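Give me structure tokens for this 373-residue protein.
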Amino acid sequence: MPRLNVSLIGGEHQLAHVLPVAAELHRRGRVEVMAYAAPGATRVAHQLCNDIGLPEVPIREMSLPAALAVLPRSWHKGLRVVRWAGPLRDADALLTAERTTTLLKSLPGKCPPLLHIPHGAGDRAKGFERRIARFDMVFVAGEKDRERMLAEGLVTPERCLAVGGVKLAAMSRMGLERSRPFASKRPAILYNPHFESALSSFSTFAERLRAFVLAGDEYDLVIAPHVRLAEHWSDAERANWEARAVPGRVIVDLGSEHSFNMDYTLGCDIYVGDVSSQVYEFLVRPRPCLFLNAHAAEWRGNADYAMWAFGPVIGPDDDIGPGIARAIREQPARKKEQEAAVVAAVGRHPWLEGETGPDAIEKAADAIEALLA
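Here you go.
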């Protein structure tokens, strides 16, 4: 029986992009599956499998010696790949949602084929970095990403397959209905800034957006940045921002499971952000979007900012209130473009009206079985 190893070192927010495929292969029983994860991820991984009705994937936790564990956390992924290289490579193929695992191709010894499911369908340049060329097979969510990877010479046609959004398929199996984050009938704004300072709008807009919401009685606000934005903050920095929550009006979520399990992207009414791929998850149901150009980026005609076509864009000196009002006002005219963009980004799926057939989890599993055969 062929063996598939799965690297889960990218963090809990990446699990839903790759683990469901491993669980589906484990369920079928024609491929031996073993996952490798950072300590502490097993409970969340098993819960995800249970939630989507698939068997729990066996997991080995990749511990580090005490002398290495005290090094900066940003080094830990690479350290785990190097220390656990032997077990990771003891397979017929290795599947991952992150790219640090490509280090295995630089280490002495034979490396099995590396299979990649990118964690998200966003547009920023980092999603199309050179390390993608080191994978033997890439399973992207939609034709949008496949066409760009081909155009940039990162893949060949036979090494890249569009299977649909695995995370969206997993969340669909759990049900796409979510509770609203607030009890009021006010529209809820989701503010979802990116974590990279050169791209993020957080330092420029977060407090201004909060002040705007609290100055009136028109909206509620969820501040839920990418989970990596606060991962290196001190306890004092985290406490400072968490203290800015206001019961019934403002939620500040710096990385709970609600910030990556689509509770907010499905439960809120208006999206405000910069370059996070979560906008495509939000637009599974087309709704108003506002984009914040905090760094005066030259975004028109730039593929890295393709998502900014889904709503108005404002700069650091612009007022937030008129921008949100404009997003709401222009939404009927943008709805068809948003719908087409989601299909291009994540494919046609059974959650779309009138769609039937296998979802992304099954398609990716089928393709991996064929490769291993």
